[in-house]
From TrEMBL:
Name of the protein: Heat-inducible transcription repressor HrcA
Xref: Pfam families: HrcA
Source species, domain of life: Bacteria
Keywords: Repressor, Stress response, Transcription, Transcription regulation
Function summary: Negative regulator of class I heat shock genes (grpE-dnaK-dnaJ and groELS operons). Prevents heat-shock induction of these operons.
UniProt xrefs under HAMAP family: HrcA
Organism the protein comes from: Dyella japonica A8
UniProt GO MF annotations: DNA binding
BP GO terms, sorted: negative regulation of DNA-templated transcription
UniProt cross-references to InterPro entries, sorted A to Z: GAF-like_dom_sf, HrcA, HrcA_C, WH-like_DNA-bd_sf, WH_DNA-bd_sf, WHTH_transcript_rep_HrcA_IDD
Family (UniProt): Belongs to the HrcA family.
Residue intervals of the Heat-inducible transcription repressor HrcA C-terminal domain: 109-329
Length: 350
């Protein structure tokens, strides 16, 4: 039900009920709503409005209580239309800036810090997807000769990550040839991503045809082998899973087992986070909206991050549906923004 279909009293009562429930986790009765909402209406009128909201599927009455709790549909309406988001408080923003330093560190270390910090600030599980290394520009390449016409390729990327590959050549190259090839490739391709480098190499091979000199031939052969596509295992970093054990909504042992198995296997979680990364801004899944049974009863709040105009992944938190959305959403949004800023600063140092 769109919020526009609710009159002002119903919207105010629903907002009050959800805020009260998110604060203490208990069903909210009509008398409590009468005191808290500030509306000059009788408890009987409030009960009638609550009955209408229940018929609309926005609230539900647990069989053990006369009070009501919001349904996932009610929480969705609250987040989309009724919540009043405020900028992150200055002290929390300062903490994020202080604990997400863009200093000399690898991207994976930075992402791990972001995951841990999200968990610490929300007391939920912090999650961050790890981008492919090929998404970062190449800073430097070097070669080391190995026996049997093999070469150790050392790739240093703009995020300070180092990747080693061993390639097999048609003939052995001596140290001088490897140094000349490295100098040529660094001059030509430093600052480009591997996909872009492969495109340049194909064009150079077509244009040079069979007239390559010895240096060019060696460099191109080495580059073709060094920059060949390689499968990279996608990953997602998770911190603070044990925080979720402290919430009564998730205290069921079977539910916890399924949830922790999902954290361990990561495949479904990674799939969900990749969907989130493709959309700008904050994404929020409440309960079964995620499409994964293990996350029923949980809410997932994410935001995408990137560098130089490219989306690299998503950061977020997983917690019970009873979370302080007006605080969690700005924390996730600010973390994604600061992470993007840090990666942009790393990229500009190339």
């Amino acid at each position: 039900m769109p919020a526009a279909q609710l009159d002002a009293r119903a919207r105010r009562l629903l907002r009050t009920l959800i805020a009260q429930y998110l604060a203490d986790g208990e069903p909210v009765g009509s008398r409590t709503l009468s005191r808290s909402s500030g509306l000059d209406v009788s408890p009987a009128t409030i009960r009638n409005i609550m009955s209408d909201l229940e018929d609309a599927g926005l609230v539900a009455s647990p069989h053990t209580s006369a009070g009501r709790v919001p349904t996932p549909r009610g929480l969705r309406l609250f987040v989309d239309s009724l919540i009043e988001l405020q900028p992150l408080p200055q002290d929390e923003m300062a903490r994020l800036r202080r604990e997400l330093p863009p200093g000399p560190t690898t991207t994976r270390d930075l992402l791990g810090n972001a995951s841990t910090l999200l968990s610490a600030m929300t007391q939920f599980a912090g999650v961050v997807t790890v981008p492919r290394q090929a998404d970062f520009p190449l800073r430097h390449i070097d070669f080391v000769a190995l026996p049997d016409a093999r070469v150790l390729v050392i790739l240093v990327f703009s995020d300070n990550q180092v990747q080693n590959r061993i390639v097999q050549l048609a003939r052995p190259l001596d140290g001088r040839e490897l140094e000349q090839a490295a100098n040529y490739l660094n001059a030509q391709f430093a600052g480009l991503r591997l996909d872009d480098i492969r495109g340049h190499l194909l064009r150079e091979l077509r244009e040079a045809s069979g007239e390559l000199n010895r240096l060019m031939s060696s460099a191109v052969e080495l580059a073709a082998a060094s920059f060949a596509p390689q499968s990279e295992s996608d990953d997602v970093l998770v911190s603070g899973q044990t925080n979720l054990m402290g919430y009564s909504e998730l205290a069921n042992l079977e539910r916890l087992r399924e949830l922790f198995e999902a954290f361990q296997k990561k495949s479904e979680l990674l799939q969900l986070m990749e969907v989130c990364a493709k959309a700008p801004g904050v994404r929020l899944f409440i309960g079964e909206e995620s499409g994964f049974a293990a996350l029923d009863g949980c809410s997932v709040v994410t935001a995408s991050y990137g560098a130089q105009g490219r989306v690299l992944g998503a950061v977020g938190v997983i917690g019970p549906t009873r979370m302080a959305y007006e605080r969690v959403i700005p924390v996730v949004q600010a973390t994604a923004g600061l992470l993007s800023d840090a990666l942009n600063r790393v990229a500009t140092t190339l």
